[in-house]
Each structure stands twice: as structure tokens, then as C-alpha cells.
Design goal:
Layout: H1 3-14, H2 23-32, H3 44-53, H4 56-96, H5 100-108, H6 112-135, E1 138-139, H7 141-144, E2 157-158, E3 178-179
Antiparallel strand pairs: 1-2, 2-3
Helix pairs in contact: 1-2, 4-5, 4-6, 5-6
């Protein structure tokens, strides 16, 4: 068996994409698959399966996509955790009363302005959420009774009980009758505060 000759045959089938493949690994697998002197000694399906296994570019792209997806998930988790932190800081400072920022800052070994800034964002988020709940105070009866098929925290909120029947008149005013359950600025369901 002439390994150089077979390598030339393999590189010919890969044309302009030779650099994307591990030629030595392809040759080793072809020999293991029973190739003697020519790539035609192995059936076409087996040949291309072996070639695909050693596609370095495809594996690199797949790994990059996987890492990027993990990064995006981590970023989403971070954002949700950040929102919860802001809300908890706001609640804690409120509960601690006067001097709450300073007390929490000492406990967490953070500066007073840092704690104040985080708590301020939490208060703003809570205010926005309260305004949202006031604007969309109702949920569907089946959701209220817990017999809906929505995921946890996935029930729509409505402006009024008449929205269910369409007697509300919101459409004529250019208003939406129902909104997604997540209020603007609030963490995604599952991160609710106890």
C-alpha cells in the first residue's frame, strides 16, 4: 500500500477544503476499514462517513456554537440573578430602615454608594412592576384556579375581566387586552422572591 498515493486520492476528493480535514486520521481509518491500494476499495458511504468524522472545521464550528450557546445562557442567568439582587437589596434596605444602606454595605463589605445604587435600581424595578400590575390586574380564571396548562409564571395578565369576552373596547383605543406575564424589568419566572 502506497500511503502517499492514497493521500493524494483523498485530497483530490476534498478539493479546495483539504485544510479543513485531518488527512492522516482519514488514512488511518480507511486502512482500518479495509482499504488496500485505492480509496475505491471502500464503499462510498463508509468513505464519506470517515471523512466527516475528521472534518476539523465542522468540529471547530460546532464547538464554537456550543460555547456561544452556553455563554448566552450564562449571560441570561446573570441578568436574572442581577435583577433579583437589585430587588433584594431594595427590600433589605427598606426593612432595615434609616441607615439601611450603610448597614448592608458593612455586612457585604461593599461601599455605601454601591449598595445605594443597586437598591435604587431595585426600587425602580419594583415601582415599574407595580405600575404594570395595576395596568394589567386580572389573570384568566383558569390560571387563578391553577388548572391552566401554562408553565409556572406563564399566565397572561389582562386589563379587565371583560377582556376575556371582547366586551372591553380596548382594541378601539389601540390598547392590548393581555400582556405576557413578565413585567418589564422583572426577572424571568423562577427567580421570584419568597
Amino acid at each position: 500500500m502506497n500511503r502517499v498515493k492514497i493521500a493524494q486520492q483523498v485530497t483530490t476528493t476534498l478539493s479546495d477544503f483539504v485544510q479543513d480535514y485531518d488527512i492522516d486520521a482519514i488514512l488511518d481509518d480507511l486502512i482500518d476499514a479495509g482499504m488496500q491500494d485505492n480509496i475505491d476499495d471502500v464503499d462510498s458511504d463508509t468513505y464519506w462517513d470517515i471523512v466527516r468524522r475528521h472534518d476539523l472545521a465542522a468540529h471547530a464550528l460546532e464547538r464554537a456554537l456550543d460555547v456561544h450557546a452556553a455563554f448566552l445562557q450564562t449571560e441570561e442567568d446573570y441578568k436574572a440573578t442581577l435583577a433579583v439582587r437589585q430587588l433584594v437589596f431594595a427590600e433589605t434596605v427598606q426593612t432595615l430602615g434609616r441607615g439601611g444602606n450603610a448597614r448592608l454595605a458593612r455586612e457585604l463589605e461593599l461601599s455605601d454608594p454601591t449598595v445605594k445604587s443597586i437598591a435604587d435600581r431595585g426600587r425602580a424595578m419594583d415601582k415599574e412592576s407595580s405600575e404594570y400590575a395595576a395596568q394589567f390586574p386580572r389573570i384568566r380564571p383558569e390560571c387563578e384556579d391553577g388548572i391552566c396548562e401554562h408553565a409556572a409564571g406563564g399566565c397572561e395578565r389582562m386589563r379587565s375581566s371583560q377582556c376575556r369576552t371582547g366586551d372591553c373596547g380596548h382594541a378601539e383605543l389601540g390598547l392590548h387586552c393581555a400582556e405576557l406575564p413578565q413585567a418589564p424589568g422583572r426577572p424571568a419566572p423562577g427567580w421570584e422572591l419568597a
